[in-house]
Amino acid sequence: MSEPTETSDAPAVTDRRGAYARRVLADHAVHAAVVVAFALYPIVYTVLGQTPLGSEFEVFLPRVHAMVAVLYIGLFAMSFDFISGYTGYLSFGHALFYGSGAYLVVLTATDKVPLLGPDTPFMLLILVAGLVAVALALAVGAVSFRLSGVYFAMITLGFAEVAHVFIRNWDHVGSNPRDGASIGAAGDAFAVGVPGIDALQVGIGRLVGDEFGDVFGIGVEFGTAEVSYYAIGAVVLVCYLLMQRIIHSPFGRVMIAIRENEERARAVGYDVFRFKLAAFAISGFFAGVAGALFAGYRRTVAPGNTFDLFFTAEALLAAIVGGFGTLAGPLFGYLFNASVEGVLSTEPHGIARYLRDVLSESTLSAGAGGVTVADVINVLVDGRADLYLGIVFILFVLYVPRGILGTLRDRLGGHVADRLPERVRSRFRGRNE
Question: Which of 44, 111, 145, 412 has its CB surrounded by the most CB atoms within 10 Å?
C-alpha cells in the first residue's frame, strides 16, 4: 500500500484547521462581540452625533476621550480584581503600583530617571513600569501577606499612604511636588506599537497624538482621542487576555482555592504564601502598565490622581458594580460609573446644561412651594454624580452583591462566554422546530 502523499493530506489538514478555528470562534463569540463593540464605538458615536438626535446622544453617551480613561482605569480596576477578587485579599494600597508606573513614565520623559532617557521607546517604558510595580508588590506583599483580612487591607493602605506622602514632598519630581510633574505639549507623543518601525506605531495623547482624516472613506475623522483610544485599547486587550489566561491556568485555580478555603489549600500541600505573593506581583505589574498608559496619554501626573486612596476606591467601586472575581466586570463597572458622571457633569455636554437649553423659560420658572424646575435641576442634577454613585454603590451592595457580570453569570448558570451562545442557539433551534 502506498503511503499518502503530502498533497492528499493537505485538504484534511485544512479542514481540521478550519474546524478548530470555527470552534475557537464559537467558544469566544461573546468576547469577540465585546471587542467589536468597543472597536466600533468611536465610529458609532460620530455617526450618531450627526443625526437629528445628536445633542441627545452626546448627553447620554460617553465622549471618546472619556472612553480612553475607561480603558486605562478599567485595566487598573481589573488588576485590582485579579488579586482581590480571585484570592480574597483586598489591596487597599493598589494605587501605589499605578502611581509608580505613571511617575516612572513622566520622570523618564523629563530625564530624571537613571539609565533611562527621554528617547526610551514608550513600549519599553510600559514594560519597565510594570516591572517596577512588580518589585514594589514583592516588597509590600512579603510583609503584608503575614496578615489576613482587614489587617492585610490596612497594611497595604499604610504602604500606599507612605508613598503618597513621600511623592508629595520629593523635590526630585519638580519644584512643587504637591502639584506633580508634567511633560506638557512639548516634544513628541508617546508611541504605541512596534518600536523601531514607524509605520507600525501611533502617537497617543490628548494634545500631541496622531490624527487621521476620512478613515475608510466614510467621512469619519480620527482625532487624537480616537487614535489614542484604539492604541491604548490594544494594550489593554492584550493585558486582559494575559490575565484571563493566568486565571484559567493551574496557577489561577490555586488562587481561587485560596479564596474559597486557604487552610484547605495549605493542607493539600500548596505554598499559599508564595502563590499569594506571585499573584500580588502579577496584579501589580498590570496596575503599573495602567499607570504608564495614563501618563502617556495625559502627559502629567499628580499625587491626587495616582497614589491617592480615593483612586483605589474607584477600582473598588468598579469591582463591586461590575462584579468581584469576574475580571472583565470591573471594566464594565467603571464604564457605568463614567457614564453616570458624564450625564450628571457640569460640563456643556451634561444633562443639566442640556435641560436648561431645551426647556423654555416658563417651564424652568414653573414650580410649587417656591421651588422651581430650575432649582430642582441645580440641586438634584447638576454635578451630583457622586451623590448618585454613592446611592448606586449602596444598592449594589444590598441587592446585587455579585455585581452586573456576576449576577448575569448566576442567571445563566456559568460564564457568560460559555452559556450565552448556548442560550442563543437553543432559542433559535426552538423557533426553527
Answer: 145
Q: CB–CB of 189/208 below 8 Å? A: yes
Angstrom distance (rounded) from CA 43 to CA 36: 12
Q: Let me know the angle formed at the C-alpha of 21 by 194 and 3, rounded to the nearest 5 degrees.
A: 110
Question: pLDDT means per 10 residues in the chain (433 residues)?
Answer: 53 63 64 89 88 88 92 96 94 94 93 88 95 96 92 94 93 88 80 84 85 68 88 95 94 94 92 95 97 94 91 92 92 92 82 85 83 86 84 88 87 75 66 58
User: What element of type H or E holds 134?
Assistant: helix 122-144
User: pLDDT tens across 186-244, in order?
Assistant: 677 898 988 878 778 898 988 887 788 766 666 667 888 899 999 999 999 999 999 99
336: which 3 cell numbers? 457605568
Query: Which distant-in-sequence residues (6+ apart) come within 8 Å of 185 by Cβ?
Result: 207, 208, 299
CA dist 158 and 143 (Å) reads 12
What is residue 368's three-state secondary structure? strand
- Mind listing the pLDDT tens digit for each residue in 388-425? 888 888 988 899 888 898 888 888 877 777 677 766 66
| Strand-strand pairing, 190-193 and 201-204 | antiparallel
d(CA 193, CA 356): 44
DSSP for 17-39 reads HHHHHHHHHHHTHHHHHHHHHHH
Q: What is the pTM of this model?
A: 0.90
Residue 155 · residue 147 · CB < 8 Å: yes
What span, in angstroms and rounded, lies between the C-alpha atoms of 333 and 314? 10
Name the amino acid, one letter, at 41: Y
Q: Record the cell numbers describing residue 117, joined without a space.
A: 532617557
- Start-end of H helices in 328-415: 329-343, 351-358, 361-365, 373-380, 385-399, 403-412
Phi, psi values for residue 191, rounded to 5°: -105, 130
How far is CA 305 from each of CA 120, 267, 313, 339, rounded to the nearest angstrom? 24, 42, 12, 19
- Long-range Cβ contacts of 167-170 (<8 Å, 24+ apart): 167/99, 167/103, 167/303, 167/306, 167/307, 168/303
DSSP 200: G
Close Cβ partners of 11 (under 8 Å, ≥ 6 residues apart): none
Adjacent-strand bridge partners of 116: 113
Q: Which three cell numbers stand for residue 359?
A: 426647556
- Asked whether 306 and 103 are in contact (CB, 8 A), the reply is yes
Gyration radius (Cα) of the chain, Å = 24
C-alpha span between 287 and 104 (Å, rounded)? 13
Question: Is 291 within 8 Å of 300 (Cβ atoms)?
Answer: no
